[in-house]
Specification:
eight-stranded mixed β-sheet; 5 helices; alpha+beta; Aminopeptidase
Amino acid sequence: MIYLAEGPRVAIRYVSLRDFEELAVLHEESAQMLARWMPGGPIVTYVDFERYMARFDGPLHEGFLICLRDTGAIVGRVNVNNIIRGTQQSATIGYSAYATTTGRGYMTEGLGLLVGHAFGEMELHRLEANIQPDNGPSLNLIKRVGFQREGYSPNFQFIDGAWRDHERWAITVEMTRA
């Protein structure tokens, strides 16, 4: 495995087509847990996965996996979406853990690595995350990584059959240096 960044227990790498089978199993096992929080349905078929991967063909989106360093097993996923260059150098992140690996700190470590990669190699200045107010585990995760709450967006995103409110959280390069 070629990792982009490594921590004590996890590492991050780009998602690829060869990850389909492992991700399909993780999505199926976690479908009930994620349905309330994630837009779109789970990745179940190879066609779904190809459609998901196609979004990373251009410069606006990058897809990453959080993997256990010792085995390479996937424990989480992070997408860097809507990348804006020029005077903003910003993007929005979306992420998911999986039912079999939650509660072990893997996402905290992996998301920290992703922030470092985004502000280093990707040359971004700001990352945002939009999280539903009832998603306590995700809010706790984003706080642990150093994001700060910036605002509230009513009816922000259509998820699980309804328009959902979200809190907007962000982190900048300067915040990671403080």
